[in-house]
Design a protein that fits this description.
The complex is a heterodimer of chains A (about 290) and B (about 375).
Chain A (H helix, E strand, L loop, with lengths): L24 E12 L2 E8 L12 E6 L3 E6 L10 E6 L3 H7 L6 E8 L12 E7 L4 H11 L7 E7 L8 H9 L3 E6 L9 E2 L16 E6 L2 H13 L7 E4 L15 E2 L2 E2 H4 L2 E3 L3 H6 L5
Parallel strand pairs in A: 7-8, 7-11, 8-9, 9-10, 11-12
Antiparallel strand pairs in A: 1-2, 1-6, 2-5, 3-4, 3-6, 12-15, 13-14
Chain B lengths: L5 E5 H13 L3 E8 L2 E6 L10 E6 L2 E6 L16 H4 L3 E8 L6 E4 L7 E6 L1 H15 L6 H9 L1 E5 L10 H4 L11 E6 L6 E6 L2 H10 L6 H17 L9 H6 L5 H9 L5 H5 L6 E7 L5 E7 L9 E2 L2 E2 L4 H20 L9 H4 L7 H10 L12
Parallel strand pairs in B: 2-8, 8-9, 9-10
Antiparallel strand pairs in B: 1-11, 2-3, 4-5, 6-7, 6-13, 10-11, 12-13, 14-15
Helix pairs in contact in B: 9-11
Chain lengths: ~290, ~375
């Protein structure tokens, strides 16, 4: 007999209904917001039992029933009441189905899984966020939290995108600026009306007056972008352990038991996705086909 | 050597054991001959066991032979490990009914009867210990494996006839039975006749032993066992030098031997299918025309191109990188992930590799030229 609790939520083998088993919790699409031509933010609310609270940088496994399941980082802000936001780029069958699920549709959610950005430890640090493309989504909650923290640290957000139409969360950027953050954007290819920078995101580093000894950097984007950005930051004097990167591999179980997310000694769903760049990770990112 | 919880059984003792396990509600599996190999199968009487059947193994080759040897367990290991019974090659995780805003998720729970293994090998017992760490001790344990494993009864039979592909002595997993069994049997066919020493290793094993009867184990039988294990160890010609092996492989990721083995490897995944510790699985969602859906789990292999697929393509597209992933996982990064080796030395991957690639030989080749690298343009 299925271990279903009174409110219809699925319990785990040991009786917990926390969403981290192999059985998804049903969540309803509360609202959707188109961010760019191929990126949609989908807000989900639980039908029965809710998953455990997430921390910024963690991910959920989202199911489009009958299509499949993929790992999607939360793009919302921890502690915010209301539906959980995930920002999804349409890159395959599952992400397409998730992004096109209409308001009211049921999706499956498991998690939260993995490590987080650790923003609670950063009250008095200067924080430098570097995001490439949709890589801003897993950072969005952390930036919201950091822009509202009480402390002496500054907040700088560097965002790179292929072209101005690919920039996500531009409304949020205004809010972050209003709260005192420095937000700079660059694109690979400008378009009429673009008044920001042109070039890869690391070129923005030359515009900053970094205090390396009090700075922590949070990086998320294509692996090659993170590799070059981290190397530049080390050259600028940041200790590699104070650079945090969010890594991606194929993820299927979220529980550290299916093997797909291995990166050398790491299981990224368990040991990551957020990891310090220093030591192991810097070496791993330099190895081809790991 | 004196053991408190041990008895000497005649061949009728095996018959009694099989009947007793059935009486306790177990689905009893033991070694049976099927499709030209010794594989786990239903055992209803000791007559189902492979009396006088031997396996002759070498890299890329496995053949059975028969003679008038009365032994039931004079063979090494077959292509199917017991893993498949606890962690099935395919299983439905959940089903859904309804569509759109009315989807219901119905978890599929296991209702299989508890399973008893009669005739697992010491290396396979060690493999179950590894899977216990990987699948059972995760923060989010696998419910199917955990439930089946907790209910399983394991009667291990110590090895009297290792294959030339075996290297369990290098991995510390045999030929004697290590910890974790319910019952350990040693088959003796010396001058004293055809007998079994049976030892209990758990409270369930204790109660089974008490019911089995038998008589005290005479010193001569213990001596015979010691000689048997000594002979088995001596017969183990294959070696894997494990001294500093994890670090050796970790610092030789660009060793030319990976290119060499990639020239031979077919990336067919046979090694991962026969391996008793390979645990990788994939989740597939399927639907039918009514809108009902299922999520199915199936064994996956790191040799499959899709295994490392992310948006943009596979991370490990070359055969070199896929063999390297498998071998370094078994012998190096498994320690980082699960604090144990991922290899028990059963030799299946050597026997069942269509081209006879030998993990012990590959590791030795890297050790022989530790630090050698290939430049990125492919020239040594």
């Amino acid at each position: 007999m299925a271990p279903t609790t009174a409110d219809g939520a699925v319990a785990t083998a040991d009786g917990r209904a926390d969403g981290t088993s192999l059985w998804p919790l049903p969540y309803r699409v509360a609202w959707r917001r188109r961010e760019t031509a191929d990126v949609v933010t989908v807000a989900l609310e639980p039908v029965g039992a809710a998953a455990a609270p997430y921390r910024a940088g963690q991910f959920h496994m989202l199911t489009a029933f009958g299509v499949g399941e993929v790992a999607i980082s939360v793009s919302g802000t921890p502690g915010t009441p209301g539906p959980i936001e995930h920002t999804i780029r349409d890159v395959g069958a599952v992400s397409h189905a998730l992004g096109h699920a209409p308001v009211g549709a049921l999706l499956g959610l498991r998690g939260p899984f993995g490590t987080d950005w650790g923003v609670d430890d950063l009250a008095d640090r200067d924080v430098l966020v570097i995001a490439g493309g949709i890589g801003l989504a897993p950072l969005r909650g952390a930036i919201h939290q950091l822009s509202q923290r009480r402390g002496t640290g500054s907040l700088t957000v560097l965002v790179g995108a292929r072209d101005p139409d690919q920039l996500v969360f531009t409304a949020d950027m205004e809010q972050w600026r209003a709260r005192g953050a420095t937000v700079l954007c660059t694109v690979d290819a400008a378009a009429p009306g673009w008044r920001g920078e042109v070039g890869i995101v690391t070129t923005l580093l030359t515009r900053l007056a970094l205090a390396p000894e009090r700075t922590v950097a949070l990086l998320c984007g294509p692996e090659v972008m993170m590799r070059f950005a981290a190397a530049d930051l080390v050259d600028l004097g940041l200790h590699p352990d104070r650079i945090r990167v969010s890594l991606e591999r194929n993820m299927q179980c979220g529980a550290g038991i299916c093997g797909h997310c291995q990166l050398g000694p790491l299981l990224l769903c368990r040991d990551g996705p957020v990891l310090p760049y220093g030591g192991t990770v810097a070496a791993l990112l330099g190895q081809q086909e790991r | 050597m004196a053991e408190a919880r041990a008895v000497l059984l005649g061949t009728d003792g095996i018959e009694r054991l099989v009947g007793l396990l059935a009486g306790r509600g177990y689905r009893t599996l033991g070694p049976v001959v099927a499709d030209g190999a010794i594989v786990p199968g239903p055992v209803n009487s000791s007559a189902d066991l492979p009396r006088g059947v031997h396996d002759d193994q070498s890299p890329g080759s496995y053949r059975l032979s028969r003679d008038d040897d009365p032994s039931l367990f004079a063979w090494a290991v077959g292509p199917r490990s017991w893993k498949a019974e606890l962690f099935p090659p395919g299983a439905v995780v959940f089903r859904t009914s309804g569509t759109g805003s009315e989807v219901q998720v119905v978890p599929v729970l296991d209702d299989a009867a508890p399973v008893a293994f009669v005739g697992a090998r010491p290396c396979e017992l060690a493999a179950l210990g590894i899977l216990d760490r990987v699948l059972g001790a995760s923060e989010h344990p696998d419910p199917l494996y955990s439930a089946r494993r907790a209910a399983a009864f394991v009667a291990v039979v110590e090895c009297a006839r290792p294959a030339p592909t075996c290297f369990c002595t290098s991995m510390g997993t045999g030929p004697a039975a290590g910890a974790g069994f319910d019952l350990a049997l040693t088959e003796l066919v010396g001058d004293g006749g055809h007998r079994f020493i049976a030892r209990a290793g758990s409270s369930v094993g204790d109660s089974v032993l008490a019911e089995l009867g038998g008589r005290p184990v005479p010193p001569a039988a213990w001596d015979e066992r010691a000689e048997l294990l000594e002979r088995s160890e001596a017969a183990m010609s294959r070696r894997l030098d494990t001294d500093g092996l994890a670090a050796l492989l970790a610092r030789n990721l660009e060793h030319p031997r990976w290119d060499d083995v990639a020239e031979r490897c077919l990336s067919c995944g046979n090694c991962t299918l026969v391996c008793p510790t390979c645990f990788c699985s994939a989740l597939d969602d399927v639907s039918d025309l009514s809108g009902a859906t299922e999520r199915r789990r199936r064994w996956d292999s790191c040799f499959d191109l899709g295994y490392s697929e992310v948006h943009g393509g596979p991370v490990r597209s070359s055969t070199r990188s896929r063999y390297r992933q498998w071998a370094t996982h078994k012998l190096s990064t498994w320690f980082d992930q699960f604090q144990t080796a991922g290899c028990v030395g059963c030799g299946r991957c050597i026997t069942w590799c269509p081209v006879g690639i030998d993990i012990t030989e590959e590791a030795a080749a890297i050790r022989a030229s530790d630090g050698e690298t290939v430049r990125k343009d492919g020239q040594a």
